[in-house]
Amino acid sequence: MTRRRRIYEGKAKVLFEGPEPGTLVQYFKDDATAFNNQKKGVITGKGVLNNRISEYLMSRLSEIGVPTHFMRRLNMREQLVREVEIIPIEVVVRNVAAGSLSRRFGIPEGTPLPRSIIEYYYKSDELGDPMVSEEHITAFGWAAPQDLDDMVALSLRVNDYLSGLFLGIGLKLVDFKLEFGRLWENEEMRIVLADEISPDNCRLWDVKTNEKLDKDRFRQDLGRVEEAYQEVARRLGILPEGGPSDVKGPKTLQ
């Protein structure tokens, strides 16, 4: 495998130098973390499945005009993406009460919300990804007001589309997290969807049984984590032939 320079390693992915200027190779790991990196483990085959699921969802979103950093999948664990300047804000869209929302406001998990709620979190492992307001974001220069408007508009489009897509395969999109980046092209800048969309950052429940088919199975020690991810891929029609086979990770240059 081609030797590439490692640019960045996160909790679930590694970014390597791409084959052309302005591109990166995004490698999906099996590592799993929860509670701001306090709980760690491995979900066998997760990287393979998330690569395929994110490819599928990013491609569908691109078809309806949502700009993304995704270019193409390279192999079972890697995809080629455009290099973007990541905005240090996580946008969380909530449709049903779950997780921290239920804990903060005492709302029983599974309660449908009156309307979709958008929350912002500052990306910082050291600080525990604190929740922030639009005032914090613009005052501290993490994003300009226009950037934030674009991020919100794109988040609502993504929510509308994915809610319908998942409902069609018997899944409820409870909530999800998005990340965005600034893409520079010929002196022009635009906001694009970045990172990934997968059961790692979406809460997906079976419509009939409310069975959790996402990373909450790892967070809450519910078991059958690998099977949950496989079930999402199976319903999307993209489970690799014979299940999630593997490839060796790329050799890196330090």
Automatic annotation (TrEMBL):
Top-level EC class as recorded in UniProt: ligase
Annotated pathway: Purine metabolism; IMP biosynthesis via de novo pathway; 5-amino-1-(5-phospho-D-ribosyl)imidazole-4-carboxamide from 5-amino-1-(5-phospho-D-ribosyl)imidazole-4-carboxylate: step 1/2
PROSITE patterns: SAICAR_SYNTHETASE_1 (PS01057), SAICAR_SYNTHETASE_2 (PS01058)
EC number: 6.3.2.6
MF-aspect GO terms: phosphoribosylaminoimidazolesuccinocarboxamide synthase activity
Keywords for the protein's UniProt record, in alphabetical order: ATP-binding, Ligase, Nucleotide-binding, Purine biosynthesis
Coiled-coil segments: none
Family assignment from sequence similarity: Belongs to the SAICAR synthetase family.
NCBIfam families assigned to the protein according to its UniProt record, in alphabetical order: purC
This protein's name: Phosphoribosylaminoimidazole-succinocarboxamide synthase
Species the sequence originates in: Azospirillum picis
